[in-house]
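Schema walkthrough. Field components (list of strings):
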Amino acid sequence: MKPSFGEKIYLLAVYLVLAVAGLLCLLPLVHIASVSSSSLQAVASGHVTFYPIGFSLDAYKQLIEGTPIMRSFLNSVQITVFGVIFSMLFTILAAYPLTRSYFIGRRTYTFGIVFTMLFGGGLIPTYLTIRSLELINTYWSLWLPGLVSVFNLLVLRTFMENIPTEVDEASRIDGCGEWRYLLRIVLPLSTPVLATLALFYGVGYWNAFFNVLMFINEPAKFNLAVLVQQMIQSQTMLSQMNAASGSSEQIMLTPEMVNAAAIIIMVLPMMAVYPFLQRHFVKGVMIGAVKG
Amino acid sequence: MIRLWRRNIPLYMMFVPVIIFFILFKYVPMFGAVIAFKKYNFADGILHSPWVGWDNFKLLFSTPTTLQIIRNTLVISLLSIFVGFPFPIMLAIMLNEVRRMWFKKVVQTLVYLPHFFSWIIVSGIVITVFSQQNGLVSGVWESLTGSTYPFLYREGSWLAIFVGSGIWKEAGFSAIIYLAALTSIDTTLYEAASMDGASRWRQIWHVTLPGLRLTIVLMFILSMGRVMEVGFDQVYMLQNSTVSNISEVISTYIYKIGLMGSQFSLTAALGLFESLVSLILVLIANGIARRYGNGLW
Amino acid sequence: MNKWTEKSKLVAACLLGGTVLLAACSNGGQEPSGGTSSESASTSKPKITVSIYDRGNVPQEMGTIDNNRWTQWLNEHGTVEAQYVPIPRGESVQKLNLLFASGDAPDVVTDFATSFRNQLYQQKQILAIDDLIEEHSVHYKQLLEKYPELRKAATKPDGSMYEFGRVQQLVGFQALFIRKDWLDKLNLEVPETVDELFEVAKAFAEQDPDGNGQRDTFGIALSGETGAVINTMFRDVDWVLEDGKLVRGWEQQNKASEFKKKLYDAGLVDKDFLADNNGQKAQQDWNSGKIGIFVGRTVDPVNVSQYYESLKHNAPDAEVIAIKLPSSEYGRFAAGVNNPVQMTTVINRQAKNPEAAMQYIDFMASKEAGEMLRYGADGTDSVKGENGCPRPKDAAQFSKEVSWNLDFQLLMSQIELEPCAGILSQLDPEKPLEAEFLELVKQNNEANLGADVEYASITHGEHMPTLPDDLGVVQTNVSKIDDIYNKAIVGGTSFTVEQAYAEAQDLWNRSGGEQLETFYAQWYEENKDTAFLAKDMWKFVKE
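Field assembly_structure (string):
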């Protein structure tokens, strides 16, 4: 079917809006990349906007040679990969029973889980719990307390509920056990949402910063996010605090280009991974197949 | 009945580890919130610190600032939610219309990027764009009206910038969920609609949006649970003195109090209040959703 | 399926859940503490734990903050073996709170935040140290005798000492920089009063001092530290003495705000200064040669690149001088100076071996440790320069090996190392940029430490009393007063300073500001003879 004139205009508008939105979102990346590859003077004078001035890659060199960026990168990978595996596993185990209408206590559990999203005990009790399990200074202190995100759990549950019940009935006649039904039918049909959740968990673990600082004691175990945040965030806050209190604490300043380079190195893997996950967002072929 | 229980056994096999997790890491620490009713100190710990009843709440709510801060939190947050809510949905639907895969992939990746940049960076960009002197927008504004406008100093325009920057930063990331949801819409429905001669608009209205309904409802209920948490960084980095009447929110207030010394009990009291408000909002939202058969529980 | 198998399935499931968690626990507990075993040689020495700031700035090949050349040296040469507990600098108070709450806090705890150390005192988490110093220290005892102010600053309300600190010479910390080349070009004198300051700023903004034919320069910065120093010119420092009584200085704040408003209304400053939260924009403008008057710092060699190098790069003709703050009707004041007696360290009440902790502190306060940490090894890291002071042998090597160890120097009394330790001996007069900056350092010290200027506040912020919890809330609530005044600065005719004053007063009264007033007045009344005040600070000026 050929698109009508109106549809052509409509599509043109869609493409145009998306292109503009995409460009707007590209700005910060371009800005940071420019800063990371400019000269100190240009950066310190605020001249760098969206292209490098006094091009140099010294910042990257300095970062790779001078800071433990490789080690923290590997730590980040370790935290993220295992974290995603554990979290996905438990989120699936949590979500599936909640989608079964005959699951006893379903509503109570759902409410009980949502409740934990709203009420918390704060940092100290959480720390004491982790400590009593002797998990401080291990990555388990990052994986276990955030094992299941309520948000992700509910998203998964909603998607699983969306799977048409005919599929359910069909498989039940086959005498499929719950485990087999989950593995053979539900999970394959949920690939788009599983990819989404893996991404959400992955991004969360990749960016983990505060928990790492609180629960991990050895700098050798710190991840990339901590390295970057210590360079930037803490320093900004510190210099503000200093300015306010007239404190005479000496601050070691990392050149802004190095900060920017670190941000780029931190963001690149997230950029690289995303397109691979996008391929799972293919239109619901499988549901159709099962139904047919 | 026994049959039902028996049917539940495999489900419980899956679910028990989850229950253990929630009890151990969520419900056990939750008891720490009792310090809201105590005067917490290190020596006595959570259990043995002296009870003070409602004193912490009284101290909080006796000051004129507190009510303003709660109001600000609600205003900023509800505004962000209601204005920002449609953007990820629109973005996802638009991306869904795109047939050129490379274009879709590129745009999808680009709009997802800002999520990864901290608010320090975003605030730098906001100032570059909206400052009166040499700001990009101000330049355009000046050439149109002949005078500059202090976008960052007026409460209205500041709020717009605040909400806008939040949308710009997160819409692409939030759209991912809707993109995933779109995949589960039965393609035959589109075919049928298009056979009936429905325009693209009507297809969106009658097929796409209903297909997203469950996700939209879920996102809405969940966002109600976070009404009281306006992100600290976003406010802290974007605020300035002239808008402090509307920009001071609970998280920045807690931060300021913390600078004077760690007031654990006071913070816990404020946290408990926050949780209570969120709970009420979630209950209301869920209650409405249940009317239409889409409640969470 | 019979019941039995179902049941066993259930049990198995429970176990599965349990084991996953258990495996997690046991695995976690056994995880080796990778790579931090410097405890090789000295097993006989008593062991203690010590907090150390972690800023993530240890060069990779130097190890980590808790195990590196310096920790090894300290453990080898000291009489105790310290195991360092890294504390992230940005989140130090939160992390230390967790450690104290769980009973894991190190024996020796270091933090700059006065309010945090006071909280530890109030919650009885730290040891009184008088006897320890008396019986188990050598170097620190000597310091205490030499500088009795150290005792003054360490003494808490119960009359005992609780904190260890370090002594430094009083130096100009903030500097009021002005573009000398612009003054000359426009035939202007160095401003001596605030009115002259206004005129100079006006000329800088309006008469095209950089000669590019455009009106694109600002007279003066208003954000960041410059804004705070303008307040200082009017003695707008919250708490001021009036007839021997400590009261809130409303009038001063009004005057300072009016002055800023005048600058703003005349268009001499960056209109967006309030959005420039940390003064970064102003600094960039200074660096690119667009601001004529700006407050920077002259205390650390890093300040050269921060405030001078880029400026000279962008405007090679720029000539900078550091001047005295112009006088106002309230007097003539010093810009920011350092805290010459800075308290940093406390001993945890739970420490198993307080004597060992004391010995560690004593060693860290010794000249031997101080010189080593400051200069590195004589001959390899530093060599004696012409002035007899050690100087980095190779700047790049030095910054890689030595200069990041700053946070090990929190007990080092720099005054004992003078005249070598300060910035004056660290800059290299052979390099033109550093030689010029040296001049700025000297000018700044002359401007701010003389007898003809006064310290605007009664004492350095770190020696002000910590408020009790409920007053802390009041203080937080009234801190909005600054916002109200800022609003008046940019408010034009629609919101004047007078209106701001009325609004601020109203907020003050509604929030219980008079409680603060009573607290401070009473504190001053009771402690004016024993507290560490501005006059004590000025005892540390080098003759």
